[in-house]
Amino acid sequence: MTEAPSTTPKVESSEENSSEEETFKILVTHPEVPQEALDLMSRGCKLIMCESLPPNRTEILQKAKGVHGMFWGSHIPLDKEVLDVAGPQLKSISTMSAGIDYVDVEELKKRKIPLGHTPIVLSDAVADLAMGLMLSAARRFHEGRTKIDSSTWENYHIEWMWGQDVRDSTVGFFGFGSIGQAIAKRLKGFDIERVLYTTRRPIDKKLEKQFNAQKVEFHELLGQSDFLFIAAPLTPETEGIFNSTAFPKMKKTAVLINIARGPIVNQDDLYTALKTNQIFSAGIDVMNPEPLPANDKLLTLPNIVITPHIGSATKRTRTDMATIAAHNVLRGLVGEPMLSPAY
What we know:
Blueprint: E1 10-12, E2 21-28, H1 35-42, E3 45-49, H2 57-64, E4 69-72, H3 80-86, E5 92-95, H4 105-110, E6 115-116, H5 123-138, H6 141-149, E7 170-174, H7 178-187, E8 194-198, H8 205-211, E9 213-215, H9 218-224, E10 227-230, E11 255-258, H10 267-275, E12 281-284, E13 304-306, H11 315-333
Parallel strand pairs: 2-3, 2-4, 4-5, 5-6, 7-8, 7-10, 8-9, 10-11, 11-12, 12-13
Antiparallel strand pairs: 1-2
């Protein structure tokens, strides 16, 4: 799949007048990292394994001291405290995720520690789930199941359980990177009318032509989209942007899908928008907080489909993510460019 670092990961011993070599130590913060990645890193390095499930910050801090690399396999904050405990010999870190909103990137940059992550490889799996959420929300799968559970079939009404058509629709994307484009590729089989997108910079003209896509301002995206996919990173600018100001600008027949990050949507405002039929329905794989409490009011609504952040949860995808993260760590240890650098 990828080439290993050209140099076997070793570090010179710190003992004076010693020519011995000491094996690099890599902290692995999750005990269930796929074996393929562990095998790759263990060839020339010593793995310091965390055993707690769910991953435990206390254990991570206890085991971080003196490591040279970190395979960050959880969304526990990776911050100054962790770096201080690890020590100045720390020289390479990779997350096993696309998003890095839980990482203090500026602190890593200040210390000149390279950071890897794993975007792109998960785009297809997340796009598949996004399509499922779109169809489930548009055609009222969750509500239909509750009708079965409560024996309240009313199919004698001609308009019973009417949903939204995908064909001839305008599909909007808030964020149109690799995941958004993977979704757009899948939508080609649904005979949609056009694609709109809102990003900081326009995408390549060839891609715009390929997807029949047009860059528009945020208010236009809201007002014209029949289906609206959130596929942007969480930043100070995007946090809470889908709120009580945004939802009234959307079509009452609009379907919102979020496969990005929960805090991009103000959940109280989403609840109100769905409860009062400001928008038709929503499908979300991300929320705030995670895990979502079982008594959260969103779960009382019939017109929302919720999955527990499983966008990349396939064996192939998670194994590929782990392998790329392992290559990132190993390359950083020997001073080579990471396979998938975050900056």
